[in-house]
Amino acid sequence: MASRSRPPLLVVLALLLVLAGLTTLVRSSNVAPKTSSLSLSSNANSTALYCTGLSGTTGSTVGHFTFLNTTDVTRQLNVQVVSDKGVTSLTSIKLGPHGDKEVVPQSEVKGSSFAVAVQVNGGGVVGEEVADSSAEAPCVSSGTTNWYASGFDTTVGSTAGLSIYNPTATPAVFNIVTYSPSGYSAPAPFQGLAVGAHDQTVINLGSQIVNTADIGVRVRVLRGSIVINGVQESGSVTSFAQGQRTLTRSAWFPAVTTVNNARSQIRVVNPSSESVEVVANVMVANYTVAPQDLTIAPYASGDIVITPNSAIPAAGYASVRVKASAPVSMSLVTGSTLGSALSSLVAPSDDFIVADFTGKGFDAANVTNTSSRTLKVTFTTIPGPRGHKQTGEVQLAPEATERVLSVFGALSTLKGQTLLVTGSRSALLVSLTLPTTPAGVVVVSPLDGG
Amino acid sequence: MAGVGFGAVFSEEEEFDEIPESGVLELRNRPSRVLTSFRAQAGFVLVVVVLWLIGSRNLFAMHLPLIGRLAPLDSWWSTWRHFFASWSANGVGSGSSGMPGYGVLGFAGTFVVGRMGVLPRLALVGAVPVGAVGVARLLRGRVSNRARVVASVAYLAFPLGVNMIGAGRIDVLFVIAGLPLVVRRLFELLCVPGFRSGPYPEPVPFGHRGWRSTEAGQRMAAFMLVALITAMAPATLVLVVLIVGGVWLARFFEGDEFQRRVRPWRLLGALLFNVAIFLLPLTIDFFVAGRRAFEVFGLARGPWTVPSFADLVRGADGTFGANWTGWLLPAAAVFALVLCRDQRRAIATKAATIATLSLVLATLVAHHWLGSFAPDLDVLLSLYAVMIALLIGLGVSALEHDLRQSGFGWRQLVASASVAVIVVTIIPLLVSFASGRFDLPTTSVAESLSALAPPKAGGYRVLWLGGPSVLPVPGWSVEPGLEAATSTNGLPGGDSLFASPDSGTMDKVLSAVHSAIEGRTVRLGQLLASAGISTIVVMNASAPELAGVQSVPLHPVPAGLTSALGLQTDLSLELQTNSVVVFANSAYRGLVSASVAGKTTSTQLLVSGTSAVAVPPAATIRAGVAPASAFELLVNGTALRRTVSDGWMPTYAVGDQSTTPSAQLVMHRFPWNGILAGVTLGIWIIVWLGFGLIQRLEWLFTGRRRRVAVARHARKEDRG
């Protein structure tokens, strides 16, 4: 039988093949999902929190761990406190809805430094380690295999160390390399360090990098994963540095002090083999400030001074946006004549907890939209057992920074309050400083559950 | 008859195939005509066979690695027993019906006198050549012998076969071997032009001689063949749908004179129904499996590991053919489609339509756009390979017949190109013969793991996690690109060759792994301890990379898995390489454990049906085996009352005893599976007897000799 006209079937087949071929334009990547205990509160089987960095009574970071239940249900916590002497204690704590509890490690075990591992029978519990000196650091929910931090000092009157805890059953092995204004260093005693399963240890950077300012650190974990907290003592000031797990080309520091008698610097580490150009755009209300730039040599560190800086007026808080030509590690160093505090970069996220763990309230409590589109921000108070939940929301303009109390009218003060701040996208940043003189020299990281 | 120029090489005259017998002696003075004589064709085939044997020389004797589906087979008797078994060790234990694939293996083992180890080697060496012979049979009577030879060689040279040998995929090789026969039978039933021109013989009663040639007999033969292959690779049913759908679609756009004789969808419905009956245990498991039912056809691979569209067109799911040479055969097929006319075109359009549908479905599956319906990509490519070979055979026939009818023009150029392409295609195949094993690895990741047994072995399970194309044992999907399976007391073996689509209690393990990936648990070891899992093996490749010896592509697991496992507080990293990551479960407490009130630790017990062991008095015994209803614990010969903990574990309370009691865990289960397997086997035997054997064997039942029975039948016919 003679065939009908040829084109239709071949055309149909060709069209099908072309459409199938166009699917190559759809790229699929193998990316791990982002998780945090805040986002998992509703359906997590179990979550964990790890903190390290507090010291015994002879150290400078004596303090306690505080755990806060942000959910409406009771949570059971199994708290294991570990000391550098290998001593552990295990306690069970029940946290009622919106309840909190403190654990003082030196009351549980003997040692010079402590870490805590908490297993929770669900999500929505956050933790903070609070030193008596008002230094704070959030507890994290997982270890890391790669860690960067910048801005350490081992000059006279300062000590810098890394408090390390192994949260898993796998003995961990890691290497530490450092970067300074004079270049790269990989001290032999810092290579192949080991910490056993569920063990804690402290590495003193000053033992190998002597009398040096602006030290950057990279910890590469060869086996297992560890929790790391940088501890910086400068004069009478102590601070924690949570570091970064990945390098970044840009960063926001929305509350950098520029007041008289204060010091603030952006310290940058370049771990790459190429020079890096760093530009800091400083925004001070009612003033126009020229960008501050810096070139950092390969495998070296550098800093951009915000205050005292003759090009930047002393006018309260400045919002600093930093961009680099290659991925770098950044931190903010603030202080006064008493000493300097180190605070790590906070990455934008979609939710944060603002909690007054010190009981002093906050001097600056800001929300920032780091994206180029409007961001809806929701505020929800986490009341005590007899309190009432209050909510509010605001549309935050692109790249705008606002004070929390000015956009959330339900609260007149954040003292003693716990607030959940949620953004409609992962472009939200929360910046906090404690009330100090001069203002803004103690920067606190908000909790992001990560 | 005489032609000129290029067309003279190809002639429609039959005499060209029988030159020695030809009376036209001047033909012998013509320029060489490639593969025109029987001697030339036979010689060529012999050369190909010898080369293939040389290319697979190491497969005869080398140690077969534990990759793909090359898990060592159990004995002939044990393999049959798996088919009739009331319980299988897959997952955490299952009472699902025995998979028909065991029956097929047992049946095949009969022909090798129970030497089951020969079967995998036969499949590796012989499957692709058997398929090539099938292609030749597919084209018999429709094209010349030369075209059949070329099509067969094209099927040999198609990348899929070589890659599947290198991956140890016996199941896909089984499809490669049998699919051409399926295509032929279905084309005949669908009255594709050239495959059945005349009517079927008059109906004959079932069981009588001649029934096989009737339409009913032919349909049943096709159904049985499809069922046989589907037992080994269930995705074959999808191929059947593609074949019927492709023929229908091609006729929708270009009808032919025979299309009104058949109702393709009725045929398809009948085929699916009959295959469901022939594979009754699998059919029941399919309906019981619920949302996992479609996983019987295959598990979704991670979109980051699947072949690209270009690779799919080349038929290259592996290292062979994933370069420019892989385009040659599809190009030759396209040329053939362009050149074919008349009846050849009627077949070619259907083949092209089926090939296109295969590619489109494979693309949709590769991007995971069909949800849990993810037929095995390699099985889909098998159909594509048959169609390509079919088109090439038709193309050669078109060169022999259709080219002469047209004047010199682009057709001649296309013809030249297609000939060149076919010739060049053989070269990569010859190169692949160098290793003697088609790059089948000499060792596997699984076998390289020596530290799987926990220190105090009291019965343990290993949890295998990896991509569906990497794991050496079939399992269930955790998420696209991640399959989970277990093995008991070591490496996978012959008792876990097939997995029922119904995951049953294994869902607990799958959910726990999924929770870990999503960050919703940090004590995965504790969650898995109840299943007796002592070790977790995460495989990114089926074989280790050995410089200069073997190179195996990486198919990484989802990015979050390894990091999630590293965050678990009760998993200890034991080994980490590019190919494999191994974690030990510090919360492991044995497959069967005894705990005593007031003590925080449990004691591992080795409690099986073969021997009794001492258990602590007043202990609670927990057995990590499912289903709970199938197991009984005998303590000093007395069965204890059973409860269930964690929703699935059989749990027994040993009362206070004056002396140390001894316990024995036994399985008590009504042999429904055995009955079902027996019924299924009975159906196969009865239908097989229906192909004329009932009449031949009638004398066994009537007591009369055959001659008497035949004479009686003849007298009946005379009277009728």
Mean pLDDT of chain B: 86
- Alpha-carbon distance between the termini of chain A? 72 Å
Number of strands of chain B: 15
The strand order across the widest sheet of chain B is 2-3-1-4-6-5
Question: CA-to-CA gap between the ends of chain B?
Answer: 52 Å
CATH class term of one domain in chain A: Mainly Beta
Give the mean pLDDT of chain A: 91
Content-based structural category of chain A: mainly beta
What are the main properties of this structure?
heterodimer, A: 450 residues, Hypothetical Protein Tm1070, Chain: A, seven-stranded antiparallel β-sheet, five-stranded antiparallel β-sheet, 3 helices, B: 720 residues, alpha+beta, six-stranded mixed β-sheet, 23 helices, disordered N terminus
Structure description:
With 450 residues, chain A is mostly beta strands. In chain A, strands 18, 19, 20, 21, 22, 23 and 24 form a seven-stranded antiparallel sheet that branches. In chain A, strands 9, 11, 12, 13 and 15 form a five-stranded antiparallel sheet that branches. Chain A has a four-stranded antiparallel sheet with strand order 1-6-3-4. Chain A has helices at residues 7-22, 105-108, 404-407; strands at residues 47-55, 63-69, 75-83, 88-95, 100-103, 113-120, 125-131, 136-138, 146-152, 158-165, 172-180, 183-185, 193-195, 200-204, 215-223, 227-234, 237-241, 248-257, 263-270, 276-284, 292-296, 300-307, 317-336, 339-344, 351-355, 364-369, 375-381, 391-396, 401-403, 418-423, 428-433, 443-444. Among the domains of chain A are: 47-132, Hypothetical Protein Tm1070, Chain: A, CATH 2.60.290; 146-241, Hypothetical Protein Tm1070, Chain: A (Sandwich); 348-450, Sandwich (Hypothetical Protein Tm1070, Chain: A), CATH 2.60.290. Chain B has helices at residues 38-55, 76-84, 100-111, 118-139, 145-157, 159-167, 170-189, 215-232, 236-253, 264-278, 280-288, 309-314, 328-339, 342-366, 377-401, 410-432, 506-517, 524-529, 559-566, 672-689, 693-696, 698-702, 706-719; strands spanning 461-466, 476-479, 482-488, 533-539, 571-576, 580-585, 592-596, 602-605, 613-614, 619-623, 631-635, 638-639, 642-645, 649-653, 662-667. Chain B has a six-stranded mixed sheet. In chain B, helix 4 runs antiparallel to helix 5, helix 4 runs parallel beside helix 7 (170-189) and helix 13 (328-339) crosses helix 15. The longest helix of chain B has 25 residues, at 342-366. The interface between A and B is large, with 48 and 52 residues.
